[in-house]
Design a protein that fits this description.
By secondary structure, this protein is α/β, with parallel strands linked by helices. It has one domain. The chain has 3 helices and 6 strands, in the order βββαββααβ. The protein has a 6-stranded mixed beta sheet with strand order 2-1-3-6-5-4. A hairpin with a 2-residue loop joins strand 4 and strand 5. The longest helix is centred in the last third of the chain and has 14 residues. It is globular and about 40 Å long.
C-alpha cells in the first residue's frame, strides 16, 4: 500500500491511497511537492503528517478507512491486521496503536 502526495488540480497537492491490496509494504510517496506541502495536505486529509527527514506518521484508523473500500481481496482485513502486527513488532506502531511510522520515498514518475 502506498500513500501518495502528488501535484493535483491547479497545482494544489492531493493525497491518495493506492495499491490497497498489497499489504506486504507500506510507505509514503511524495511527488513534486515540498515537505511543507506534503505535511499540510496529509494533515488536512486526516491521514497523518511528516515527522522528519524520511519519516512519515500515518493515522492507523484513517488509513484503514481510506484503503478498505478499494480492497479487492476477500481476506483484506486479516492481511491488514498482519501488516499492523508486523509493524508493531518492528517498533513502527505507537503504543496506543493510533499511528504507524513509515518511510518516505519519491513517487513514481516524480
Amino acid at each position: 500500500m502506498i500513500v501518495e502526495v502528488v501535484g493535483g488540480a491547479e497545482e494544489r497537492p492531493e493525497v491518495r491511497v493506492v495499491d490497497t491490496d498489497d499489504l506486504s509494504r507500506l510507505h509514503l510517496a511524495l511527488g513534486q511537492v515540498t515537505d511543507e506541502e506534503a505535511d499540510e495536505v496529509l494533515r488536512e486529509a486526516g491521514l497523518g503528517r511528516l515527522q522528519d527527514d524520511g519519516i512519515g506518521v500515518l493515522d492507523t484508523a484513517a488509513l484503514r478507512a481510506a484503503a478498505e473500500p478499494d480492497a479487492d481481496v476477500a481476506d483484506w482485513a486479516e492481511r491488514w491486521d498482519r501488516m499492523v502486527e508486523e509493524a508493531r513488532s518492528r517498533g513502527w506502531v505507537s503504543e496506543d496503536g493510533a499511528t504507524l511510522q513509515v518511510h518516505v520515498e519519491g513517487a513514481a514518475g516524480a
